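Honest question from a wet-lab person: if I give you the sequences of every part of a complex, can you actually get the arrangement of the whole thing, not just the pieces? Trying it with mine:
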Amino acid sequence: MTGIRAKARLETTTEIKRLAREQIASKGAANLSLREIAREMGVASSALYRYFASRDQLLTVLIIESYDDIGGMVERADANCSRDDLVGRWRAVSQSLRTWAITNPSDYGLIFGTPVPGYEAPTDTIAPALRYTNVLLHLLADAQAAGCKPLITVPTTKGVSREYKRVRANLEIKLTDEMILAGLAAWAALFGAISFELFGHVDTVFTDPEAHFRALTDMLGTQMLGMK
Amino acid sequence: MTGIRAKARLETTTEIKRLAREQIASKGAANLSLREIAREMGVASSALYRYFASRDQLLTVLIIESYDDIGGMVERADANCSRDDLVGRWRAVSQSLRTWAITNPSDYGLIFGTPVPGYEAPTDTIAPALRYTNVLLHLLADAQAAGCKPLITVPTTKGVSREYKRVRANLEIKLTDEMILAGLAAWAALFGAISFELFGHVDTVFTDPEAHFRALTDMLGTQMLGMK
DNA sequence: TGTACATCAGTGAACGCGCGTTCACTGATGTAC
DNA sequence: TGTACATCAGTGAACGCGCGTTCACTGATGTAC
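Yes, you can. This is the full assembly:
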């Protein structure tokens, strides 16, 4: 039977990744150490090279998995709402983002924090990195198709319109400049708020950051989807 | 003359910090190495201990300097505007934040990126960390005093009001819940947008991120200051 | 069903490097009389 | 103004540790006949 070896291999691979995440959580991605993983597994350090070609490759796999994890989570949160409940979808998506970030803070840092210096992300990471973004883009497209317009608009210069053309090109439904701006603003506010919370910039201010986050996303949704 | 030794001391201290920042820029704060600084200075590694008690203390000094640097920059940008030009002040403040971040990307990462693991910020960093925040808070206070109201408001729950009370407590002018929410949203969007840009999450999308940033801050200002 | 051979996981020593911090010391610069 | 003494910057060796990666190897598990 070929399965037993394959199964052991899968288990070992999973264990390596688990310990790697643990290490990143406690000492940071820059200090991820293969030797320490090996020590914790009670195995020679060279043994790990049967599973990962290098330290960088292990990091890459972890990053891809994290992107897929958060992407899947956001997709599911969105899919659980009825299609025309746009406010509900926005709430679900933003809540799930924060929940994921708080549950997996080190993974969040790995993706959205300071890039690991000297580490150049290979092209394999691009597609998974787009999953969570696409959820928002489709939400905006559905909103626009349903007649939503952002409440607040500002006159956009030629320069900005040119930039937004590139964003528009990747979608079936052509978003207006206003909608793109509102969407990006909401997206930035979301990640800004989560980063502040996770990286310890509001520790002294809030005891219940979730309450603030909910109010924040409600406000962003109102602006973006043009409802009151 | 006591000045010559003091002057040399200052120069050496400055040089150490300069090289440290260079290293952080190229290899990340986690890989900051005293020995490498010493090597670059052509000096024994032990010599650095005449200037900094430890690696952590050097990091702390750099972080405090960065907070002061960005704090001073934002304060000056604000001070250069006439007090009642609220939109102008908001534009100046947000522009200066982005400019500083782009000019000193590694310092931005040091402060607003993933915390250096194992490093616990001492209390000396608290006061300088509040400088740039205070500029926004006073801007909001002035806006409210001038009768500005955020355009979009959402019903705030009791939980949120309780949280915002703590923010309110630190200011002479008592901001409304709506104003606090609008301000925090704008602040989060600002740092979210800057982080996205600096940490490479919009590389493939924008060629002129500044144009987008300007539109973004204009929109945030409109919401926050209630003007059209 | 049994045997020969190929595959693969894991070993352990080695290479060549890195690090923060301590400590007894030298020798130059400043200070007090 | 000159001399004795104290201060301070910098040395270089050492302690005790870390790392990623390679390589020839053993021995168990799977495969093909």
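Two things worth pointing out. The mean pLDDT of chain B is 92. Chain B touches chain A through 62 residues (CB under 8 Å).
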